Write the structure tokens for this entry.
Amino acid sequence: MSRWQPDRNASIATAGSLLGLYAADHRLDASGTPVQTANGNVLRDLVNEFGSLPLEAVEAPRHGRPDDSNPYISFDPELCILCARCTRYCDEVEGVSAIALAYRGAETTVATVADRGLLDTTCELCGGCIDTCPTGALTERRAPDLPPEAFDKTRTTCNFCGVGCQVDLNVVDGRVVKVTGPPPGETVNDGNLCVKGRFAYDFIHHPDRLREPLVRGEDGELHATTWDVAINRAAQGLMDVKKAHGPDALGICLLEPVHGRGELPDAEAQPSGVRHQQLPSVRGHVTRADGRGARDHVRRRRDDELHRRDP
Ligand code: SF4
Ligand code: SF4
């Protein structure tokens, strides 16, 4: 009995037919290829590699969420191929289920309960659905609309808690304009980030950010100095307090995540006045309490703004 051999030409023709069906329900550029997006577009890459059957465009009545006031995540239904990667990520990785495929037939879309904006759902604004979307249908609102090659990526460690998640800073003209998670399997956070790691990067270029140590001079004003001088001044201040009032007058607060590296000994074993606060973290990537707190904070800010405009 002869062994079945795959027919490469037939496989490519089948792939082209399937890609043509997807492309007919997708926004195309002037050359008839699926558009490029800031997050790339896997459908475009596949069509460029295998070609696609030219089919007449279909008018899918798939809808998005026009009233979604969340500041971070936007959904463009014309770029969605209904692969369900985002909804599975939200359900199976985040355990949140804020989004799901809803409606039927050509109207099927990525929806929330009653098509509410993400701020009014269980969404924790982790942004993982953005990273997992292959076509750029889900994007970060504030990021510039540039092709992927326009971003220089620098990998670094998120500095919001002690878990040590790795983040990729996306830089354009020397400014961080977006943060993305490294691909799954490469780093401790396995492709995941929380709301802070992904979206709270405004501080990097904020004009009020402290960029060098400051000490108060004889004139009562703060002056820039070196780390050596600043650390010695702080140490001297602590020693002066201890000398004047005893060691119990000193208190130092250290922060460490529950699943951190455990450098700090138990509070009971520490000298008087030294306590460390443990932060809630889950398996080194999702700070759930932080996520919900941040989501509620953004929601309150939006509600305050709406109330200011229409008391
Ligand atoms: S941001 Fe996170 S929680 Fe919100 S819909 Fe996307 S995956 Fe789900
Ligand atoms: S991951 Fe992107 S393309 Fe896939 S269903 Fe979600 S929004 Fe649509």
